[in-house]
Amino acid sequence: MTDLAHEITELRRDVRTLADHAALTTLLDRFAAGLDSTAPDRNDETWYRSLFTEDVRLELPNGVHHGTAGLDGFLGAPKKAWARTHHLVTNPVVTVDGDRATGRANAHATHVPHPAEDGTTGPLFVGGAHYDYTAVRTADGWRVDALTASVVWVEGAPGA
Length: 160
Known about the structure:
Nuclear Transport Factor 2, Chain: A; 3 helices
């Protein structure tokens, strides 16, 4: 192989690695954005299928769910408990092995309570967690097939 051909091969590999890492990181960013959104197009089957495999397994603080069917209810129920939420995902570490990937990222979630009858708002409920996930490359791009949120710390109490 010539030096130029070798360099092109290495560049192609590097570009694919960067593209995979960007796509996998974007999946978690989109997941978090969906958790905070009340927009119908970020809470429907089409949205979830753009993030997850059909047989996804989610282990979140509100419970465990299998598959994309029923995700609107599973992920929508906690939204009703709060006036707003704000999830930040940081420090992603991704490992790609062919068409499979594993990753971990930190999450910081702020939950704003609904106002009381007098218009006052109680204290925020805030927490930090790790998102550990696996993903597979599909014909439509990367999709998460398992995600576990492990709570590391909390401040405040739900409904306090």
